[in-house]
Amino acid sequence: MTIEQRSNELSKDIIAAAIEVHKALGPGLLESAYQMAMAQELSLRKLPFLSELALPIEYKGRTLEAGYRIDFLVDNVVVVELKSVDSLAPIHEAQLLTYLRLSGHWLGLLINFNVPILKRGIKRLVHGLPN
Length: 131
Hints:
Strand content: 25-35%
Order of helices and strands: HHEEEEEHEE
Structural class: alpha+beta
Helix content: 25-40%
Number of strands: 7
Shape: globular
Low-confidence stretches: none
Strand order of the largest sheet: 1-4-5-6-7
Number of helices: 3
Radius of gyration: 14 Å
């Protein structure tokens, strides 16, 4: 299986997990509630992940611990950023693209749980091509 195929399969699995969380909890909660529920759902689906992964910034030869954290890195392939906002804004996409660039990963999912139908709150973003 190529990295592209694996990434597509993981994306489907992550989106299915998010849909399950959204069905159970609905919109209107804090991002932290969805994050805990997503961690539980990913675990139940036996998808390996890291959560709240520190993302240091390299600046002029120094590593800066600026407090940035990736919500989820699933199977060391897909970066997942969760939101619970009225609507996704360009800054949210920029944030995920920056996380992809800084982490060296190429595929990310931006998931906003504060929508009536979750499908409308999901964006798949790509930065570069897989190695």
